[in-house]
Amino acid sequence: MASHTDSTDPNATPTPATQAGREGLDALLSRPGKALIGLDFDGTLAPIVADPEQARAHPDAVPALAALAPKVAAVAVVTGRPAGVAVRNGGFAGVPGLEHLVVLGHYGAERWEAVTGTVTAPAPHPGVAAARAELPGLLDRVGAWRGTWIEEKGGRAVAVHTRRATDPQAAFEALREPLTDLATRHGLVVEPGRMVLELRPPGMDKGVALLEYAREIGAGSVLYAGDDLGDLAAYTAVDKLRSAGTPGLLVCSGSDEVAELRERADVVVDGPAGVVRLLRGLAERMR
To answer: Helix 271-285 to helix 61-68 angle, to the nearest 10 degrees?
Structure first.
């Protein structure tokens, strides 16, 4: 699927390359009060960095969201991170204009709402702690431990990053099968991403989270922006909504590492800076 890259005009809105995308954009702009804006965090609102703990939202992301959020039905940040971490790293708490922002953390297993400032969540899956306990030994046996990074996700998921390894792609490939075996033994699944393999409970994905929230609020149109393989599920959710009569717009926060997303997107923008320009342009046109 072809896509259109964004303009350098700070208030320009890219023209979607597909008819479905153009219909989605038209619906967002003509009925903003029914629009749901769904956004991934890492790689979409925040630049990708070697150490995930150091990831922070693009400096213009929160001002752009604060300008847009009061004009739409809802803004939902949909992320694999714990909701509280995304809130902290995004700087979302206590911002005027973002009173009704929602963060769906751990693929929807956690929810933070700005209006209350609290996180609600069920008990963690026991398989996550069991798999985490085995990870150091597994990495040592595979011989791919040098430069890899184990990321804790609040007991709800655990990820192994290879971006800082001597050969990131080789380490990634070496770990796929043994991590999949480990996940299976503990009732988990493996979600591959950009130089990262995440172990998490089945049934948790961004598509489920986005679809359930869109239905909960009765969204009349949906925009979803993402950058990684985990966002494909959210793209599929938007496609389901489209087929049921709810217009949608698929945005790729451009990355040459994830061709699948670029091919399915209606619009491709230049990373988090491009996402910010898109959000700012939408806010400017939603008067």
So the answer is: 20
Strands (E), the chain: 4-5, 35-39, 74-78, 102-105, 110-113, 118-120, 149-152, 158-161, 189-193, 196-200, 221-226, 248-253, 267-269
Assess contact for 64 and 276: CB atoms under 8 A: yes
Instruction: Report yes or no: 197 and 172 within 8 Å, Cβ to Cβ.
Output: yes
pTM: 0.80
Query: Could you read off the pLDDT of 193-240 as tens digits, one per residue?
Result: 889 999 999 888 999 999 999 999 999 999 999 999 889 999 999 999
Tally of CB atoms within 10 A around 52? 19
φ, ψ of residue 249 to 5 degrees: the values are -130, 125
For 271, the token pair is: 């990373």
Contact (CB, 8 A) for 185 and 111? no
pLDDT at 9 over 70: no
Beta-carbon contacts of residue 263 (< 8 Å; ≥ 6 apart): 1, 3
State how far the Cα of 121 lies from the Cα of 109, in Å rounded to an integer.
6
Q: Are 114 and 101 in contact (CB under 8 A)?
A: yes
Strand, coil or helix: 93: coil
Average pLDDT over the chain reads: 91
Give CA–CA dist 237/231, Å, rounded: 10
206-217 vs 232-243: helix axis angle to the nearest 10? Answer: 40
